[in-house]
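Q&A log
Question type: sequence-to-structure
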Amino acid sequence: MKNAAIVLMLLTCLLSACASVPPAKHVNFVACPIVRDTSTVPCWLAEYQGKTYFLTIQTDVSAPVTPPWLGHRVLVEGVLSDDAPICGGVVLKPVALSVIQELDGSCNTMLPAEERYNLTFEPPRPPGPSKGRLSFGDPNTKPAALTLPHTFQLQYEFDGMVAFRHAQILQQILELVRQSGAKEITVTGYRAGSLLSNGQRMLEREAFGEHRAEQIVELLKGAGLTDVNYDLHWKDEAKLANGIDDASRRRTEVVVH
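Response status: OK
Response body:
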């Protein structure tokens, strides 16, 4: 019985250790970003445990994956893909990037262009300057026909709030409420964590779910939706970090009734 108990204890410890890091295909780490020049558009890379990973190309701020910044570390949460390397880096798909706000002067590596790393670049939007509006910035948005109730989700960078890429979703919420005559909006903000490949857990700042929910209400009211009832909630899912879907937990859910 004693030996059986020891075996059971060891097995439990092993299972716990396995559960404390993400699965092998998931790569989550914090590192300095590296920018490599090309003849078309710069690409962003990062190194972790002796490997170089391709993060994204330099794109407009409204792109789904926002490029990192020099002078700041970046949280990388991605899945290894079978795609051919880009700019000399292993491709992560999908990938979520979160700029760490604290300055880091060591994050300043720029690599020169090399012919072998040139890539084809398709602009994400027509030529010309960005409109520069943080929210409700896409007047050409034509939302699909939606029925009530309908749930919208805004996903964030780590410790992030509303950014340029959320403009289209906010515009869709605004149009749906105006077209449907909805009188109630439920807003739930979430705080989350991130399990890194080295077993470390990163937690978003306290009360971040509340801040996210309140910001959405403030933006919607500022856009003119003042004659609806707002039902605010916030939840803390930081302890659920598993290294697999952590990026999707950083969110605000908006239900239009």
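Response note: The chain is about 20% helix and 30% strand.
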